[in-house]
Amino acid sequence: MSYEGRKEGTRQLTGFTHKAPITIDPTNFIYFFPTASPSNPECMWIALDHINYFKRAENAQTQVVFKNKQSFIIPVSYTTLNNQVLRTALLKTTLTKRIEDSERKSLYYANGSKIMNASERKGAYQ
Fold first, then answer.
1. How far is the C-alpha of 109 from the C-alpha of 30, rounded, in Å?
2. Measured distance CA(77)–CA(62) in Å, rounded
3. What pLDDT band is residue 25 in, cutting at 50, 70 and 90?
4. What pTM, to 2 d.p., does this model score?
5. Neighbours of 39 (CB within 10 A)
6. Do residues 14 and 87 lie in contact, with contact meaning Cβ atoms separated by under 8 Å?
7. What integer pLDDT is reported at residue 112 of this predicted model?
8. C-alpha distances in angstroms, 11 versus 38, 92, 97, 99?
9. 15-20-21-25 Cα dihedral, nearest 10 degrees
10. How far is CA 60 from CA 15, 21, 74, in A?
11. Could you report the per-residue pLDDT of 35-85, keeping only the tens digit for each?
């Protein structure tokens, strides 16, 4: 899938249109987010699950410490980076839930069971 396709998938799932995080591989939990507009040459892409922690640094920047112990000062405010982390976590949660729901429905149908809607369940228990 192309970058544009991944962006569109994020928009459909979350409504995010600017500085949208993208899914690289949901089965291996690989999600990246941009630190700025992707059209900005200063933009960096960060993998959500590789962040160990981040904290405020001088001059409205943020120190990011990765799980491999490498540390970088990112020229983005703590609030902006935190917002991007939260948006990426929302994308990850939303997509994971969608995949789990789809797998659950597939299992029901594969086992010959039918998923009942609310009105059918009501009648089934009377």
1. 29
2. 6
3. confident
4. 0.75
5. 7
6. yes
7. 60
8. 15, 13, 16, 17
9. 70
10. 28, 22, 9
11. 999 999 999 999 999 999 999 999 999 999 999 999 999 999 999 999 999
Place of tokens 């020229």: 75
User: What does the H/E/C string look like for 79-125?
Assistant: HHHHHHHHHHHHHHHHHHHHHHHHHHHHHHHHCCCCCCCHHHHHHHC
Band (pLDDT 50/70/90 cuts) for residue 124 is very low
For residue 59, how many C-alpha atoms fall within 13 Å in the half-sphere facing its CB?
A: 3
Kindly state the tokens that stand for 55.
């904290």
Distances (CA, A) of 45 to 8, 31, 59, 90, 97: 17, 10, 21, 17, 24
Residues in contact with 89: Cβ distance below 8 Å, sequence separation at least 6, in sequence order: 48
The SS3 of residue 18 is: coil
